[in-house]
Design goal:
This protein is mainly α and about 300 residues long.
Length: about 300
């Protein structure tokens, strides 16, 4: 008679529970190692070094010293006590507000206008991609000439009867708004393309049924298009806020933080303190405040993506 295998005896081909899963996970981990090493070297280590410098007195004289004088939170307190950090946070929030509202709203309007396929929409989409793909230095230089005292905008205004040129880049209030509007204009093509992709995913039968029911264009937008882009809007909102929060290129090219420090947002103020005044400790403290804000927004973005994946 064949020998029966007892309940507690494992067969010759039995595997330990979880062996296959562990081998599969180990395969994934091997592929993740290069990316993890890259992130540690070029992302985590610079952030740790930035935080370490912000807690020490680091100037041009002591930059290459073996040991820096530990000052704790003094650099952070200096920034707020002098009012520079507080004012920079306020300017940063103004830029974020203009970039987010303008970029999201105009991007959605452009996506709705270019939803249908055609020769005109294809040409406009190509132009938008070209504007979006321009390097910020080139884009900012073009806008600097357009908004100059004798630029295209002031020339057009003088032609319609405006007697004095508007100081778009030379007045503290106008300069901040101008730079923020340019940053918003630069993000519109990206938002429009993403919104348009979400709108193109709507089945044509939905619009045909709405037309049969006598729905107006406004009702199609309100009851069909807006619900369809709700998930996309959440993701784009966080990305646009991050983009506005870390705006640097246009400020550097168009105003260099001026006039005075009127357009010095938090990231740019840290640059000025470190590389213009050579106070690397204070500049590191200001820059780390900006990094902390971006990290919070990045966490919000990851949470939004995870929420959308679960709901989808």
């Amino acid at each position: 008679m064949p020998r029966e295998v007892g309940a507690g005896t494992a067969g010759p081909r039995s595997k330990r529970p979880g062996t296959g899963r562990w081998q599969q996970s180990r395969r994934y981990i091997i592929f993740l190692i290069p990316a993890a090493v890259f992130m540690l070297l070029f992302a985590v280590f610079p952030l740790v070094q930035l935080l370490w410098m912000s807690l020490h007195d680091v100037t041009q004289r002591t930059l290459h010293a073996a040991d820096w004088d530990f000052v704790g939170w003094e650099n952070y307190l200096r920034g707020f006590s002098a009012g520079e950090s507080t004012a920079a946070i306020g300017r940063t929030l103004v830029v974020v507000l203009i970039v987010t509202v303008g970029g999201m709203l105009l991007g959605l309007i452009a996506a709705i206008a270019l939803r249908t396929a055609g020769r005109w929409s294809a040409g406009l989409l190509a132009l938008m991609v070209f504007v979006w793909a321009l390097p910020p230095v080139v884009n900012g230089s073009v806008w600097k000439f357009l908004l100059a005292e004798r630029g295209l905008f002031n020339t057009a205004l003088s032609a319609v009867g405006v007697s004095r040129p508007i100081p778009f880049l030379y007045d503290p209030q106008w300069a901040l708004i101008s730079v923020a509007c340019v940053a918003a204009f630069a993000v519109i093509p990206f938002n429009a393309l993403v919104f348009r992709a979400a709108l193109m995913a709507i089945p044509p039968e939905v619009f045909e049924a709405a037309a049969v029911d006598g729905a107006s264009r406004f009702q199609e937008i309100r009851y069909i298009m807006l619900p369809a882009v709700r998930g996309t809007t959440l993701v784009l909102f966080v990305l646009t806020v991050v983009y506005g929060f870390r705006s640097f290129d246009f400020i550097y090219v168009m105003t260099f933080g001026g006039p005075g420090t009127a357009t010095a947002t938090l990231p740019f103020l840290g640059y000025l303190q470190a590389f213009n005044r050579y106070d690397y400790g204070l500049g590191s403290a200001t820059s780390f405040l900006a990094v902390a804000g971006v990290l919070i927004l990045a966490g919000a973005y990851a949470w939004t993506i995870r929420r959308e994946e679960r709901s989808g």
